[in-house]
Amino acid sequence: MSADDRYVDGCCPMGCGRTLFLGDGGDVTCSYLHCPDRGAVAEILADTETEHVVVIGDGSFTIRHPLRERLGDQLLTCALHEHLANLAGPPVKPGKYRARAVTGPGWAWEAMPS
Fold first, then answer.
1. What is d(CA 101, CA 114) in angstroms, rounded to the nearest whole number?
2. 94-100-105-106 Cα dihedral, nearest 10 degrees
3. Quick check: 59 and 42 in contact, CB under 8 A?
């Protein structure tokens, strides 16, 4: 396999530019030796979570959005963020949850290990 065959179209998420290639083990890797995390793409692609992960606190929340929301800037208009920001209080007790949209208005909350 030549170097051209190993080239992967795309940019390193660490800011290195168009430096991606397919490593011997099949993982997408950054070729820039001074990259702060050459395996970042492989780690991102290996994440199996496809729903929102939400940490609910007393009067606060944080959301880890699914990668699909990067497409078309959906992240900027996230319905879950809007829903949580407009509530008078937390929808569930403080903790870590997987949130799934349900048919009709609302969200299903599944507790996750912290």
1. 21
2. -10
3. no
Name the residue among 85, 56, 86, 82 with its Cα closest to residue 69.
82
pTM for the model stands at 0.83
Grade residue 59 by pLDDT with cuts at 50, 70 and 90.
confident
Q: What is the dihedral of CA 24, 29, 35, 40, to 10 degrees?
A: -130
Q: CA–CA separation, 64 vs 81, rounded Å?
A: 10
| Token couple for 4 | 């051209």
Number of domains composing the chain? 2
CB 11 within 8 Å of CB 17? yes
Residues 62 and 107 in one domain: yes
